[in-house]
Amino acid sequence: MTETDELFIARYIAGQKKSKDIVSFANIKLDSGVYQDEYLDIIDSELKVMTVLAPLFEKSVVSSGKVLPSIDQAVMQILEHHIALIASEKIDPYCQFQRLLSDIDSYDYLRKAKKYVGDSIGIHNMYGCYHSDDFSQKDINRALVKEAKSWVHKYGKEH
Fold it and tell me: 143, 127 in Cβ contact below 8 A?
């Protein structure tokens, strides 16, 4: 599965991309025939560090007609991606939720909690299932799928 540009950008905004990922992104774009001066600048940069590459990458996003999302918008894109996969029942729910938590690790959803961890972004029930010691792995997976379907219905793109 290839990562869409929008998901890559969301993960970048969420702090999950490194300088090597930005260079790879630029290379892939150029190799596929998408030309932008910023991609060449990224590849030609002597210093492959985020302080140099991040402004070039962000300029390339804007130049391509896309909008850089806010951190909250980026996290919602990431959540929608992972939770839709869980709801589809085509992947291991537990592993996918683990990937979700990894992708939003830099986001302060713990401090933003009103009553339960993850309630500010609607994942508190899934978070509780994921960390449950009272149920079998099969029951946890079943609960994650059920909660994912509920989340998609409540927060998905169509709503």
Answer: no
Neighbours of 134 (CB within 10 A): 6
Q: Whose CA is closest to 13, among 91, 73, 81?
A: 73
SS3 157: coil
The structure's pTM equals 0.90
Domain ranges of the chain: 5-63, 71-155
For 95-156, the DSSP string reads HHHHHHHHHTTTS-TTTT-SSSTTGGGT-HHHHHHHT-SSS-HHHHHHHHHHHHHHHHHHHS
Q: Which two structure tokens, joined as six digits, stand for 152?
A: 């998609």
The pLDDT tens digits for 5-61 are: 999 999 999 999 999 999 999 999 999 999 999 999 999 999 999 999 999 999 999
